[in-house]
Amino acid sequence: MLSSILTLIMALSSVLLIIGFAILIKSASLLINGASSLAKRFSISELAIGLTIVAFGTSAPELIVNIISSASGHNEICFGNILGSNIFNTLMVLGIAGIIYPISIEKNTVKKEIPFLLVGTIFVLALVNNFGFIGHVLSRFDGIFLILSLILFFIYVVGIAKENMTDNIEIKLYSISKSVIFILIGIIGLFFGGEIVVRNAVFIARLLNVSEKFIAITIVALGTSLPELVTSIIAIMKKRHGLAIGNVIGSNLFNIFLVLGVSSIINPIVFPLALNTDFYFLILITIILFITMFTGKRRKLERAESIMFIILYIGYVVFLFYRK
Questions:
Q1: Distance between CA atoms of residues 178 and 84, nearest Å
Q2: Is 50 exceeded by the pLDDT of residue 167?
Q3: Are strands 269-270 and 300-301 parallel, antiparallel or unpaired?
Q4: In whole angstroms, what is the distance from residue 11 CA to residue 166 CA?
Q5: Which residue among 39, 77, 80, 121 has its CA within the 20 to 30 Å range from the CA of 213?
Q6: Which pLDDT tens digit goes with each residue over 184-208?
Protein backbone atom coordinates (compact mmCIF):
# COMPACT_ATOMS: atom_id res chain seq x y z
CA MET A 1 0.00 0.00 0.00
CA LEU A 2 2.76 2.42 1.01
CA SER A 3 4.84 1.58 -2.06
CA SER A 4 1.81 2.22 -4.29
CA ILE A 5 1.29 5.66 -2.73
CA LEU A 6 5.00 6.49 -3.16
CA THR A 7 4.85 5.36 -6.78
CA LEU A 8 1.81 7.57 -7.37
CA ILE A 9 3.50 10.55 -5.70
CA MET A 10 6.65 9.95 -7.77
CA ALA A 11 4.58 9.81 -10.98
CA LEU A 12 2.75 13.04 -10.06
CA SER A 13 6.04 14.81 -9.28
CA SER A 14 7.49 13.60 -12.59
CA VAL A 15 4.48 14.99 -14.48
CA LEU A 16 4.84 18.32 -12.65
CA LEU A 17 8.55 18.31 -13.49
CA ILE A 18 7.74 17.94 -17.20
CA ILE A 19 5.09 20.68 -16.93
CA GLY A 20 7.67 22.95 -15.25
CA PHE A 21 10.15 22.45 -18.08
CA ALA A 22 7.40 23.08 -20.65
CA ILE A 23 6.55 26.37 -18.91
CA LEU A 24 10.26 27.31 -18.90
CA ILE A 25 10.66 26.64 -22.62
CA LYS A 26 7.49 28.50 -23.63
CA SER A 27 8.27 31.42 -21.29
CA ALA A 28 11.82 31.73 -22.65
CA SER A 29 10.45 31.74 -26.20
CA LEU A 30 7.97 34.52 -25.33
CA LEU A 31 10.71 36.52 -23.61
CA ILE A 32 13.06 36.21 -26.61
CA ASN A 33 10.34 37.04 -29.14
CA GLY A 34 9.14 40.05 -27.16
CA ALA A 35 12.66 41.35 -26.49
CA SER A 36 13.74 40.86 -30.13
CA SER A 37 10.64 42.65 -31.41
CA LEU A 38 11.16 45.52 -28.98
CA ALA A 39 14.83 45.82 -29.99
CA LYS A 40 13.91 45.89 -33.68
CA ARG A 41 11.04 48.35 -33.25
CA PHE A 42 13.14 50.86 -31.27
CA SER A 43 16.33 50.19 -33.28
CA ILE A 44 18.11 48.97 -30.13
CA SER A 45 20.76 46.28 -30.36
CA GLU A 46 19.77 42.82 -29.12
CA LEU A 47 22.93 42.81 -26.99
CA ALA A 48 21.72 45.89 -25.08
CA ILE A 49 18.31 44.27 -24.51
CA GLY A 50 20.03 41.05 -23.38
CA LEU A 51 22.31 42.95 -20.97
CA THR A 52 19.35 44.71 -19.33
CA ILE A 53 15.73 43.53 -19.66
CA VAL A 54 16.42 39.84 -20.33
CA ALA A 55 19.28 39.66 -17.80
CA PHE A 56 17.20 41.29 -15.07
CA GLY A 57 14.30 38.93 -15.75
CA THR A 58 16.44 35.80 -15.60
CA SER A 59 18.21 37.05 -12.44
CA ALA A 60 14.92 37.44 -10.56
CA PRO A 61 15.21 34.02 -8.78
CA GLU A 62 18.68 34.91 -7.41
CA LEU A 63 17.38 38.30 -6.24
CA ILE A 64 14.38 36.81 -4.43
CA VAL A 65 16.45 34.00 -2.83
CA ASN A 66 19.05 36.51 -1.61
CA ILE A 67 16.53 39.00 -0.22
CA ILE A 68 14.96 36.21 1.86
CA SER A 69 18.38 34.82 2.86
CA SER A 70 19.74 38.25 3.82
CA ALA A 71 16.69 39.10 5.93
CA SER A 72 17.10 35.71 7.69
CA GLY A 73 20.85 36.13 8.21
CA HIS A 74 21.90 33.17 6.03
CA ASN A 75 25.26 34.55 4.85
CA GLU A 76 26.51 31.41 3.12
CA ILE A 77 23.36 31.17 1.01
CA CYS A 78 23.65 34.85 0.00
CA PHE A 79 27.18 34.48 -1.33
CA GLY A 80 26.95 30.83 -2.36
CA ASN A 81 23.85 31.51 -4.46
CA ILE A 82 25.60 34.28 -6.43
CA LEU A 83 28.93 32.51 -6.87
CA GLY A 84 27.25 29.23 -7.83
CA SER A 85 24.91 30.95 -10.27
CA ASN A 86 27.67 32.97 -11.99
CA ILE A 87 29.90 29.91 -12.31
CA PHE A 88 26.99 27.89 -13.74
CA ASN A 89 26.07 30.71 -16.15
CA THR A 90 29.62 31.06 -17.46
CA LEU A 91 30.44 27.38 -17.84
CA MET A 92 27.17 25.50 -18.35
CA VAL A 93 24.84 28.07 -19.93
CA LEU A 94 27.45 29.27 -22.43
CA GLY A 95 28.83 25.73 -22.76
CA ILE A 96 25.50 24.11 -23.67
CA ALA A 97 24.46 27.02 -25.91
CA GLY A 98 27.86 26.92 -27.65
CA ILE A 99 27.56 23.20 -28.36
CA ILE A 100 24.15 23.72 -29.98
CA TYR A 101 25.55 26.51 -32.15
CA PRO A 102 28.93 28.33 -31.92
CA ILE A 103 28.27 31.76 -30.39
CA SER A 104 29.45 34.82 -32.30
CA ILE A 105 30.40 37.57 -29.86
CA GLU A 106 30.53 41.27 -30.75
CA LYS A 107 33.73 43.31 -30.50
CA ASN A 108 32.33 45.52 -27.70
CA THR A 109 31.58 42.44 -25.60
CA VAL A 110 35.18 41.24 -25.91
CA LYS A 111 36.78 44.65 -25.36
CA LYS A 112 34.41 46.08 -22.72
CA GLU A 113 31.66 43.88 -21.25
CA ILE A 114 33.73 40.78 -20.38
CA PRO A 115 36.58 42.93 -18.93
CA PHE A 116 33.97 44.97 -16.99
CA LEU A 117 32.59 41.73 -15.53
CA LEU A 118 36.12 40.52 -14.69
CA VAL A 119 37.12 43.78 -12.99
CA GLY A 120 33.76 43.89 -11.17
CA THR A 121 34.21 40.34 -9.83
CA ILE A 122 37.78 41.06 -8.66
CA PHE A 123 36.58 44.27 -6.99
CA VAL A 124 33.77 42.47 -5.12
CA LEU A 125 36.30 39.84 -3.97
CA ALA A 126 38.52 42.61 -2.61
CA LEU A 127 35.50 44.33 -1.05
CA VAL A 128 34.26 41.26 0.86
CA ASN A 129 37.83 40.66 2.10
CA ASN A 130 38.08 44.33 3.16
CA PHE A 131 41.08 44.80 0.81
CA GLY A 132 43.22 42.60 3.05
CA PHE A 133 42.40 44.38 6.31
CA ILE A 134 40.52 42.99 9.30
CA GLY A 135 36.82 42.37 8.74
CA HIS A 136 34.88 40.42 6.14
CA VAL A 137 31.49 42.14 6.00
CA LEU A 138 29.67 43.51 2.97
CA SER A 139 28.22 46.66 4.59
CA ARG A 140 25.28 48.85 3.60
CA PHE A 141 27.74 51.42 2.26
CA ASP A 142 29.36 48.68 0.13
CA GLY A 143 25.89 47.73 -1.13
CA ILE A 144 25.14 51.29 -2.22
CA PHE A 145 28.49 51.44 -4.00
CA LEU A 146 27.73 48.18 -5.84
CA ILE A 147 24.38 49.51 -7.06
CA LEU A 148 26.06 52.74 -8.22
CA SER A 149 28.52 50.56 -10.18
CA LEU A 150 25.58 48.88 -11.90
CA ILE A 151 24.12 52.30 -12.78
CA LEU A 152 27.50 53.16 -14.34
CA PHE A 153 27.21 50.02 -16.46
CA PHE A 154 23.67 51.04 -17.50
CA ILE A 155 25.04 54.37 -18.74
CA TYR A 156 27.48 52.42 -20.90
CA VAL A 157 24.67 50.18 -22.23
CA VAL A 158 22.65 53.26 -23.23
CA GLY A 159 25.69 54.34 -25.24
CA ILE A 160 25.83 51.07 -27.22
CA ALA A 161 22.07 50.64 -27.54
CA LYS A 162 22.04 51.83 -31.16
CA GLU A 163 25.19 49.96 -32.17
CA ASN A 164 25.58 46.59 -33.88
CA MET A 165 22.03 46.27 -35.11
CA THR A 166 20.98 42.86 -36.45
CA ASP A 167 19.05 44.03 -39.51
CA ASN A 168 20.19 40.94 -41.41
CA ILE A 169 18.21 38.69 -39.03
CA GLU A 170 14.54 38.22 -39.75
CA ILE A 171 12.58 39.15 -36.64
CA LYS A 172 8.82 38.99 -36.32
CA LEU A 173 7.48 42.37 -35.23
CA TYR A 174 4.72 42.75 -32.65
CA SER A 175 3.08 45.90 -31.34
CA ILE A 176 4.89 47.61 -28.46
CA SER A 177 2.20 46.60 -25.97
CA LYS A 178 2.23 42.98 -27.16
CA SER A 179 6.04 42.87 -27.01
CA VAL A 180 6.01 44.18 -23.42
CA ILE A 181 3.30 41.67 -22.46
CA PHE A 182 5.38 38.83 -23.97
CA ILE A 183 8.42 39.97 -21.95
CA LEU A 184 6.45 40.21 -18.69
CA ILE A 185 4.73 36.85 -19.19
CA GLY A 186 8.08 35.33 -20.12
CA ILE A 187 9.80 36.62 -16.95
CA ILE A 188 6.92 35.52 -14.69
CA GLY A 189 6.72 32.14 -16.44
CA LEU A 190 10.47 31.57 -16.06
CA PHE A 191 10.22 32.23 -12.33
CA PHE A 192 7.24 29.94 -11.70
CA GLY A 193 8.47 27.27 -14.13
CA GLY A 194 11.82 27.21 -12.34
CA GLU A 195 10.07 26.94 -8.97
CA ILE A 196 8.00 23.95 -10.16
CA VAL A 197 11.08 22.20 -11.55
CA VAL A 198 13.25 22.75 -8.46
CA ARG A 199 10.60 21.76 -5.91
CA ASN A 200 9.69 18.55 -7.72
CA ALA A 201 13.28 17.64 -8.59
CA VAL A 202 14.28 18.02 -4.93
CA PHE A 203 11.24 15.97 -3.84
CA ILE A 204 12.05 13.15 -6.29
CA ALA A 205 15.71 13.18 -5.23
CA ARG A 206 14.70 12.82 -1.58
CA LEU A 207 12.37 9.94 -2.39
CA LEU A 208 15.32 8.26 -4.11
CA ASN A 209 17.44 8.85 -0.96
CA VAL A 210 19.87 11.20 -2.70
CA SER A 211 21.85 13.19 -0.12
CA GLU A 212 20.89 16.74 0.82
CA LYS A 213 24.44 17.87 0.03
CA PHE A 214 24.22 16.56 -3.52
CA ILE A 215 20.80 18.17 -3.98
CA ALA A 216 22.14 21.54 -2.79
CA ILE A 217 25.13 21.65 -5.14
CA THR A 218 23.31 20.33 -8.21
CA ILE A 219 19.53 20.65 -8.36
CA VAL A 220 19.08 23.81 -6.30
CA ALA A 221 22.07 25.52 -7.94
CA LEU A 222 20.63 24.61 -11.33
CA GLY A 223 17.22 25.85 -10.23
CA THR A 224 18.09 29.54 -9.81
CA SER A 225 20.00 29.45 -13.11
CA LEU A 226 17.35 27.60 -15.14
CA PRO A 227 15.93 30.87 -16.56
CA GLU A 228 19.38 31.86 -17.89
CA LEU A 229 19.99 28.35 -19.26
CA VAL A 230 16.68 27.95 -21.09
CA THR A 231 16.63 31.57 -22.32
CA SER A 232 20.14 31.34 -23.80
CA ILE A 233 19.42 27.97 -25.42
CA ILE A 234 16.22 29.29 -27.03
CA ALA A 235 18.06 32.49 -28.06
CA ILE A 236 20.91 30.60 -29.75
CA MET A 237 18.44 28.28 -31.52
CA LYS A 238 16.76 31.40 -32.91
CA LYS A 239 20.22 32.74 -33.94
CA ARG A 240 19.89 35.62 -31.43
CA HIS A 241 23.58 35.60 -30.43
CA GLY A 242 23.40 39.05 -28.82
CA LEU A 243 20.58 37.98 -26.52
CA ALA A 244 22.32 34.70 -25.63
CA ILE A 245 25.65 36.24 -24.57
CA GLY A 246 24.06 39.43 -23.22
CA ASN A 247 21.77 37.36 -20.99
CA VAL A 248 24.74 35.59 -19.35
CA ILE A 249 27.06 38.58 -18.93
CA GLY A 250 24.19 40.86 -17.88
CA SER A 251 22.86 38.29 -15.41
CA ASN A 252 26.32 37.84 -13.85
CA LEU A 253 26.65 41.62 -13.49
CA PHE A 254 23.17 41.90 -11.97
CA ASN A 255 24.10 39.15 -9.51
CA ILE A 256 27.32 40.71 -8.19
CA PHE A 257 26.16 44.34 -8.24
CA LEU A 258 22.38 44.43 -7.79
CA VAL A 259 21.64 41.20 -5.89
CA LEU A 260 24.60 41.46 -3.51
CA GLY A 261 24.06 45.22 -3.25
CA VAL A 262 20.39 44.94 -2.28
CA SER A 263 21.15 42.01 0.07
CA SER A 264 23.80 43.97 1.99
CA ILE A 265 21.59 47.08 2.23
CA ILE A 266 18.83 44.96 3.79
CA ASN A 267 21.27 43.37 6.22
CA PRO A 268 25.12 43.60 6.19
CA ILE A 269 26.47 40.19 5.12
CA VAL A 270 29.41 38.44 6.77
CA PHE A 271 31.51 36.80 4.05
CA PRO A 272 32.43 33.12 4.72
CA LEU A 273 36.18 32.93 3.99
CA ALA A 274 35.83 29.37 2.67
CA LEU A 275 34.12 30.84 -0.40
CA ASN A 276 37.30 32.68 -1.46
CA THR A 277 38.20 29.55 -3.44
CA ASP A 278 34.94 29.83 -5.41
CA PHE A 279 35.64 33.51 -6.06
CA TYR A 280 39.10 32.64 -7.42
CA PHE A 281 37.55 29.98 -9.65
CA LEU A 282 34.93 32.43 -10.96
CA ILE A 283 37.68 34.95 -11.80
CA LEU A 284 39.73 32.20 -13.50
CA ILE A 285 36.88 31.04 -15.77
CA THR A 286 36.02 34.66 -16.67
CA ILE A 287 39.66 35.08 -17.79
CA ILE A 288 39.36 31.80 -19.75
CA LEU A 289 36.17 33.12 -21.42
CA PHE A 290 38.11 36.24 -22.46
CA ILE A 291 41.02 34.16 -23.81
CA THR A 292 38.69 31.94 -25.90
CA MET A 293 37.76 35.06 -27.89
CA PHE A 294 41.28 35.01 -29.40
CA THR A 295 41.67 31.27 -29.98
CA GLY A 296 40.31 29.55 -33.10
CA LYS A 297 37.92 31.91 -34.90
CA ARG A 298 38.16 35.34 -33.32
CA ARG A 299 35.23 36.48 -31.17
CA LYS A 300 33.50 33.11 -31.37
CA LEU A 301 32.84 30.52 -28.66
CA GLU A 302 33.29 27.29 -30.61
CA ARG A 303 32.05 23.80 -29.80
CA ALA A 304 35.44 22.50 -28.60
CA GLU A 305 35.72 25.44 -26.18
CA SER A 306 32.12 24.92 -25.06
CA ILE A 307 32.84 21.27 -24.28
CA MET A 308 35.86 22.41 -22.23
CA PHE A 309 33.56 24.74 -20.25
CA ILE A 310 31.22 21.87 -19.39
CA ILE A 311 34.14 19.64 -18.34
CA LEU A 312 35.39 22.46 -16.07
CA TYR A 313 31.95 22.70 -14.45
CA ILE A 314 31.77 18.93 -13.86
CA GLY A 315 35.21 19.13 -12.22
CA TYR A 316 33.99 22.01 -10.04
CA VAL A 317 30.91 20.04 -8.92
CA VAL A 318 33.10 17.05 -8.02
CA PHE A 319 35.33 19.40 -6.01
CA LEU A 320 32.27 20.85 -4.22
CA PHE A 321 30.95 17.40 -3.43
CA TYR A 322 34.13 16.34 -1.65
CA ARG A 323 34.85 19.71 -0.04
CA LYS A 324 33.88 19.78 3.62
A1: 34
A2: no
A3: unpaired
A4: 45
A5: 121
A6: 888 888 778 767 776 777 677 677 7
